[in-house]
Amino acid sequence: MPHFVIMGAGRVGVMLARTLEASGHSVAVIDQDERAFQPLRKGFNGQLVTGVGFDRETLQRARIEDAYAFAAVSSGDNSNILAARVAREQFRVKNVVARVYDPNRAEFFQRLGIPTVASVRWSADQVLRRLLPEQALKGDFREPSGRLMLTEMPLHPDWAGRALADIERAAHIRVAYITRFGEGMLPRPDSSYQHGDTVHAMIRTTEVEEVSRILSLPPQPINPDTTQSES
């Protein structure tokens, strides 16, 4: 059973905790103020940890070593980013996301390798998609026949720096747009994938598993002979 650690027992933290637990996951929630846990006291079977979310001992009490993902959703940008960096860099948690109130700081934080979501675009769904990358494959939109869907595509980190056109050819998809530092961008012919980008692509519904498999792996060397034969 995957374990999730959430820092911040505000409205979004509580929503995330209850959603993840209802999905059968193990959850620990951290907050400095024990009174913040009141909405979770009834019917929540997860762990409630009082303490500072970027403190190693507090994180260890929340079983950060076992965590599949960590979400920092407290009311402070600095605390969220610091906690997210500790989780990522010291405890090697793969899936980490931090809430950021100041959108102007998102670019700096994402360059540190921490996915962020600005509060003006905030929703628990956005966080879940970053904590559980496979959730993105459910799709945002399906055309009437059901053959195509628009969805977020998680990519292996080694795709960074590669042209979006290379990604399209490798996975047989069409990139509709990318989200970079919280802003949607239409791809240009020379656009490349960068760390922290979210790729939104049209894919065939029958090829979801194969597309996911291809993009979860490092890019393969381009074969010039294959390219010529396809042109």
Descriptive overview:
The C terminus is likely disordered. The chain contains eight helices and eleven strands. The chain starts with a strand and ends with a helix. The strands form two sheets. The chain has a six-stranded parallel beta sheet with strand order 3-2-1-4-5-6. With about 230 residues, it is of the alpha/beta class.
Helical fraction equals 25-40%
What is the strand tally?
A: 11
Tell me the Rg in angstroms: 19 Å
Spatial shape: globular
Number of helices: 8
Mean pLDDT score, rounded? 83
Structural class: alpha/beta
Please provide the ordered H/E string of secondary-structure elements. EHEEHEHEHEHEEHEEEHH
Strand content: 15-25%
**Distance between termini?**
47 Å
Largest sheet: 6 strands, parallel
Order of strands across the widest beta sheet?
A: 3-2-1-4-5-6
Low-confidence stretches: 226-231
